[in-house]
Design brief:
Two copies of one chain form a homodimer. The first copy, chain A, has ten helices and 17 strands. Chain A is an alpha/beta fold. Chain A folds into two domains: 222 residues, TIM Barrel; 77 residues, Lyase, Ornithine Decarboxylase, Chain A, domain 1 (Beta Barrel), CATH 2.40.37. In chain A, the strands form three sheets. An eight-stranded parallel beta sheet of chain A has the order 2-9-8-7-6-5-4-3. In chain A, strands 12-15-10-11-14-13 form a six-stranded antiparallel beta sheet. A three-stranded mixed beta sheet of chain A has the order 1-16-17. In chain A, a hairpin with a 4-residue loop joins strand 13 and strand 14. The two termini of chain A are 27 Å apart.
């Protein structure tokens, strides 16, 4: 269930913050996978969308998106090559790269595309997932230019910016600036000028010094979740997505079971959350155990368990998982169901 | 990807073990959600299927299943009541119950169904999820009989039988026997005779003393997974389901990144596994970190990282999650893709 008013406020607020900071906003659509939400983000001023896979790009291109960044170091086979060329017929396409071989292969794949494909070099700013060290951006950028690409710039994902300590976010934002800045210099040294300097993420968004970063790619901010609440990047009034569950069992005093589990909420559990989800109606309660269709809630001493059949809203730990588990979102305004939106890119992994 | 020969051997072996032990086999279909696999289980001698939700029951009933056990304490609203009555037109239907109110409500819901619905009382044998204490089976059974149900017996799920210590499985199997036995006696005291005495689960399956349990409901055994491997209920030659991934980044010596993540593997991580999945081709490697589309693998000292583009099979921690994330399974025999099976009950949560 999506509270559409909260969602729209989240969209507007991030767009305004990006505008004030002078950042281009390119939200990551993997967090919602919905055409209706992408339309609202673009309507609020986003310059385009970020996606994680070719299949996600295809869904949003069919939905009308004309500016798509696949923020992933693709390893392109013949099938993906054809799909990328087809995407380039209707959209400005930007693709990530973090290796010389990968970008050379990508170059052969998109040769003759309807529209030149942009490459941005992925830089590791401390998350240690994909991405080259800043100095190595030169080699990848050079290979991309040699392969005929428009080398648009650099990007990073500051996953290490998650944490309860606000300094973690500030430090990660500093590391983003530094790594991206060094990578821009490395590109300059091989004659490439970076017009795109792109950073994360809901926690670090907009925490950069003026001029250091010029694009941001937050995803989760649309809905927020129990992890964002735990690390303090949102308040409970900013939570827009809930799983709606029913009490099916009250096996003991102080304990009850809801008919929602990992097949709806997902099993993501960051180190900062205290359980498997957050229950706004039961402050102090802990969702201690999650099976596929059972959520066991333990209440604080003295709190009465709800009766069988009670409907309870659960905020998931990480919204990207539940969105990808269901076929549609139920859209609610106030007390009314006003629409149902298909999760158009659900399962679009390839 | 499913190795169909391994899967069929797993099915045959469990059916043979059930036959030898004198147990009726009623496999839990939530682990595969595939009509083709249910057909093979029934063909090998299963008496019927176990499911977790009304929606799963509907999918398998449409696929031809005629004997379905919804092993869940349903709280039935008008919509579910209609759906249950429709199911009873084509299938023998058995439903779990663990409360007097729940079973009374269920009774009103299925009044006038085409075929009498069976109730089995859920008993807590130590997992402390749903289920009544054994002695309280009398009250639920009595309420079910008063509501007009055929009270078929009792069931339990021994989720606490998971663990690396083989004693954990043996102890859980003893606790199942004890709890179910006490519940059977409790029913007898109110004039109800239990013909169904139904236990778990892939770890405890068949570990009961003769006569203590007469039905088993394992699910994961069809494919097995990294958790079953870790706790020793299967060997690596019994693993039938793999995610097929490609190396997209080799950011440092001894570390590489695969293009598979939590949106394919799921995020389940039992206490007994060492990472987010098992890589048969890289013994000693650890899948240390999982994002939605990235799996970071750290190699043991001295082991060489595979080159970019290498295809790598990953065994998920818990098969029930990945099966529910994808729309189809690719069926492989030897080196050949021989079929694609729809995950017909994917997302069937309600």
């Amino acid at each position: 269930m999506v509270d559409v008013e909260v969602m729209e406020r989240n969209i507007t607020r991030m767009a305004a913050a990006a505008g004030t900071g002078g950042f281009a906003l390119r939200p990551h659509a993997k967090a919602h996978k919905c055409l209706e939400i992408a339309d609202r983000q673009i309507g609020a001023g986003a310059v385009g969308l970020t996606v994680a896979t070719v299949a996600e790009a295809e869904v949003f291109a069919r939905g009308g998106a004309t500016d798509l960044f696949i923020a992933y170091p693709l390893w392109v086979d013949d099938g993906k090559a054809r799909r990328l060329r087809r995407l380039a017929e209707t959209a400005v396409l930007r693709v990530g790269a973090d290796s010389v071989e990968g970008v050379q292969r990508l170059g052969r794949a998109v040769r003759g595309a309807a529209r030149p494909v942009e490459v941005v070099v992925e830089v590791d700013s401390g998350h240690h997932r994909t991405g080259v060290l800043p100095a190595d951006a030169a080699a990848v950028g050079k290979a991309a230019a040699d392969a005929g690409f428009d080398v648009a710039g650099v990007f990073t994902f500051p996953g290490h910016g998650y944490g309860c300590d606000p300094h973690a976010r500030e430090n990660a934002a500093r590391e983003e600036e530094l790594a991206l800045g060094e990578a821009v210099e490395a590109l300059k040294a091989v004659g490439l000028s970076a017009r795109v300097v792109s950073g994360g993420s809901t926690p670090t968004a907009g925490r950069w010094r003026p001029g250091a970063v010029n694009e941001l790619r937050p995803g989760v901010y649309v809905f927020n979740d129990a992890t964002q609440l735990a690390i303090g990047t949102c308040t409970s009034t900013d939570l827009a997505l809930y799983a709606i569950a029913t009490v099916v069992s009250v096996p003991a005093t102080g304990r009850f079971v809801l008919d929602v589990g990992s097949k709806v909420l997902g099993s993501d559990r960051s180190p900062w959350v205290t359980g498997h989800g957050y229950l706004p109606a039961f402050p102090g309660a802990s969702l201690t155990s999650l099976s596929e269709h059972h959520a066991t809630v333990v209440l604080p001493e003295g709190m009465k368990a709800p009766s069988l059949g009670t409907v309870v809203a659960v905020v998931p730990n990480h919204v990207c998982a539940p969105v990808n588990l269901v076929d549609e979102l139920v859209i609610v305004q106030g007390d009314q169901v006003v629409d149902r939106w298909a999760v158009a890119a659900r399962g679009a992994n390839t």
